[in-house]
Amino acid sequence: MQPLSAVREPLAPALSPQTGRGSLRLRTLGHASIALGRDGEPPLLLTDPWLVGSVYWRSWWLQNYPAAEEIDWLGGARYVYLTHEHPDHFHPPSIRRLGVGPTYLFPALAELGFARWLAGQGYRTEIVPPRRWMPLGDGVSILSWPLWNDDSILLIDTPSALILNLNDAKPLPTVIHALRRLADRLGKKRLLLCSYSPASVINSFLDSAGNPVALKRPEDYVAFVCRLCDGLGADLYLPFASQATYERADSRWANRYRTSFAELERGWNAEAELLMPYATLDLAGFAWRAPPPDAYRPIDRARLGALTERRGAAEAAASLDPGDVARLARKLNRWRWFLWPLIPRGFSVRAGARCLFYDPRRGHLAESGERGAFEIEVPPLTLKEALRNDHLTDLGITMVVRIRLLQRLDPRKAYGLFVLFQFDDYGHLRSPRALLRWLWAGLRASLPRRLPSPPG
C-alpha cells in the first residue's frame, strides 16, 4: 500500500441544494471523540470527550489536544454520547469543560452508575433505548447497542453514510453478523471507527529475570482491524481510540508496545480505505483532510514533566494502611472459590515497600515471605485510589502495573484476574438481582435479532 500524504487539500465548502447549509462532516479528535455537524454550526453529536488533561493517574496523555476555541465549539454540541465508563471515554474534567449545554446520552447498560453520577452533578442526561433508532434531527439517527462487557456500540445513520463506532467494544461474531446484515440492507457508505492498540495488562508481564513477556504484537492488532473492516464491508476506516501516549516514568515502557499509525499503514490489507488520524471527512463527497504529525498539539513538555514528577513524588510518599489491606482482601475474596483452583499457589501484590501474599485457599491477605505464582506491582497511591473508587479494573489499563511471573503459569490466568475485577467493580455481584440483570442483558446483546432500519 502506498503511504498516505500528510495533508489533503482543504475541503471545499459543499452546500446542500435543499437548504443552502454546509454538508455534514465527521471529525475525529482527542482520543475516541467524533464530532458530527455542519460547517459554521455547533456539532449535532459528540462522543466520548477526553479533550483536556490526562487519565489513569497521569499515565495517559493525548497525542494531539484540541485548541481552546475548538473545545468552546464542541461545548455547543446538542448531544454527547458516552459509550462506557472508562475515563478515556467518560472524562469528568472534559465534561466540566464542555458544560451543561448538551444532553448527555448513555447506553442502557445493566448498571448505570456513571449516568446517575453525572445527573447528580446537574447535567441533563438521557438513557438511549437499546437497539432502537433515536432521531437526533437533521436526517441523523443513532442506535445504541449495549454489550455484556459494560461497553456499547454506537451506530450513526446519516443521509449518505452509516457510521459504525465500535470504540473498544470487541463484539462477538453474532453481533458483527447482525451489523453486517443491517449495513447490507441500507446500502450506504460504511465508516468504521474502532481502537487498534493494546489497553490492558496484555503486555505488562515480566519473567522471573525481569525480561518482558509480550502476549500480543502490533501486527496482531492491525490484523484484527483489517478482519473487522472486511467482516463489516467497511468502505473507510478512521483510526480511533488509540491516540494516547504513556508519560509517567513507570509507564513509558508501554510506548514501544503501542500500535502506531505507521504500523497500521504498513500492515494494512483490508478493502477499506485507511484514513489518517484526526481526519475531517465530508459526508457528501467523502473528501477528507488530516493534519500532519508535526502539526499536532501535545501538552507542553515542561508542564507534563512537572505534573508527572509531582505524581511520582506522591506515589513515593504513600503507603497502604490497614483499611486498604482490608478492602483489597474483600475484593479478592469475592472470587476466592474461583481463584483457588485457578491459581492454587496464590499470588502477591507489591505496593511500595509492602508485599502482601494472597492465599485463595484460606482467603487470607497479609505480609509474608511467600510470593506465589506471580507478583503484581502497583504504585501505592494508585492502588489506594483504585480501592477507594472501588474500580480495580482500571489498574489493568494504567500501564503502571507490571506482573512478574515467578513460577510456571499461563499469563492469561493473571490477566483473567483483572477481568474478574470488572464484574464486581460494575456492581454485577452486588445482589442476585444485579447478577441476573447483567446475565440477561448480556444474553440479549450476544444473541441479537434482526436490527430495525432507521427512520426515513
Topology record:
Elements: E1 24-29, E2 33-38, E3 45-47, E4 54-55, E5 60-62, H1 68-74, E6 79-81, H2 92-98, E7 103-107, H3 113-120, E8 125-128, E9 133-137, E10 140-146, E11 152-157, E12 161-167, H4 173-186, E13 189-194, E14 205-206, E15 212-213, H5 218-232, E16 236-239, E17 244-246, H6 261-266, E18 273-274, E19 280-282, E20 288-289, H7 301-317, H8 322-333, H9 336-342, E21 347-351, E22 354-359, E23 364-367, E24 374-377, H10 380-389, E25 402-405, H11 411-425, H12 432-446
Parallel strand pairs: 3-6, 6-7, 7-8, 12-13, 13-16, 14-25, 16-18, 21-24
Antiparallel strand pairs: 1-2, 1-19, 2-3, 4-5, 5-17, 9-10, 10-11, 11-12, 14-15, 19-20, 21-22, 22-23, 24-25
